[in-house]
Design a protein that fits this description.
binds calcium ion, binds SN-glycerol-3-phosphate, 274 residues, alpha/beta, eight-stranded parallel barrel
């Protein structure tokens, strides 16, 4: 059953059962589903400005199995959704502050909140703010599972936020920094973790990933072949490919046994489901 169907069944159950009997699917349940998961990269980012609440909301409405986001910490420690190392490409920071290449984590949250993160994509989205990580989780977890990619920030802050929101069993945390993952594993044994990488997915790197405590490998699709997928499966882990926007390439990965497709076009990739 796809996660969309799972949420539909739960919605029907919610209509007839008292609140205390409702259980949302755990991340472990969703990750373990047979077939391939469709993961909306930075939200429904082909149609909405990436890493904003409208992009996340659209991905939930499309019934994406997971919704990916990236986050940094503001200069005063507020985790917020954003991808690039500088604010230039996907906000109006350059125009507002009159300078270029402004490091993403260098402003206080009060300054970041004033920026426009929608107009660069399309004037229709003018006035769309940068969301906090907490606000993003509130939107996504209404109907999906958040795939939280940490770009900058310590593990303790992330784990504390997830614990406060009672989400440790309902999200996946991923990073290119595998030491960060090991810190998360020490702090939250119940969390599902994804190790990101590219280039050679060797047995040595798989050893490292398992030592960090990850259950999922997230790899650049350009560096993935069937033998890598099989090697990950032999170790009892799952493997997701990023960022796959071409339908033929997605189908090839599905034929090779991939467990998840991370894509800017979740609606298009969903059509590949049998
Ligand atoms: O989900 C994995 C993918 O998002 C990693 O690359 O640069 O898009 O964050 P990037
Ligand atoms: Ca990402």
């Amino acid at each position: 059953m796809s996660q969309g169907s799972l949420f539909l069944v739960l919605a029907i159950v919610m209509a007839v059962a008292p609140d205390e009997t409702i259980e949302k699917p755990t991340a472990a349940q969703v990750v373990a589903q047979p077939g391939f998961l469709v993961i909306a990269h930075r939200g429904d980012s082909g149609a909405f400005p990436e890493n904003t609440l409208p992009a996340f909301q659209s991905a939930v409405e499309l019934a994406a199995d997971l919704v990916e986001l990236d986050y940094y910490h503001s200069a005063d420690g507020v985790p917020f959704a954003f991808h690039d190392r500088t604010l230039d490409r996907t906000s109006n920071a350059t125009e507002v502050l009159g300078r270029e290449k402004i490091p993403t984590g260098s402003l206080a949250w009060s300054q970041l909140r004033e920026l426009d993160a929608g107009a660069w994509f399309d004037p229709r989205f003018q006035g769309t703010p940068i969301p906090t990580l907490a606000e993003s989780l509130d939107v996504i977890q209404q109907g999906s599972i958040t795939l939280i990619e940490r770009k900058e920030g310590d593990a303790a802050t992330c784990i504390q936020l997830l614990r406060e929101k009672d989400l440790l069993k309902h999200v996946v945390v991923q990073a290119f920094d595998w030491e960060f993952l090991a810190d998360c594993r020490r702090l939250a044994p119940e969390l599902i973790l994804g190790a990101l990488g590219s280039k050679d997915l060797s047995e040595d790197r798989l050893d490292e990933i398992q030592r960090a405590g990850a259950q999922v490998v997230g790899w650049n699709h350009q560096d993935l072949q069937r033998q890598h997928i099989e090697a990950v499966h032999r170790r009892g882990m799952k493997i997701w490919a990023y960022t796959v926007n071409d339908v033929e390439r997605a189908q090839q990965l599905i034929d090779d046994g991939i467990d998840g497709i991370i894509t800017d076009y979740p609606a298009k990739i969903m059509q590949l489901r049998p």
